Give the backbone structure.
Amino acid sequence: QVQLIESGGGLVQAGDSLRLSCAASGRAFSTYKFGWFRQAPGKQRELVAIVGNSGNTNYANSVKGRFTISRDNAKNTMSLQMNSLKPEDTAVYYCHVPPFYWGQGTQVTVSS
């Protein structure tokens, strides 16, 4: 069983930055692959970024060069640094450990 708790969402202006964090329970943290997904109103949930257990990363084209995913195995946390935010980044952001585990979500709202 893995529990995921996100934090760090909020309301910002276009061009600002936010850092999301995800704290995970579980003894095998270093073996998990982590991902951040987001879901905007009326849209399907989509992958934002993913980091493997070896630290390899992959990003959605829409966030490449602006967002950075990272993990700290010593602290059982995973983060998403979001820079140069745009109104289209507005969504609920979810931490995910494939295939079954999801956090409760944290709202990110970017005003123009």
Notes: The chain has a mean pLDDT of 94.
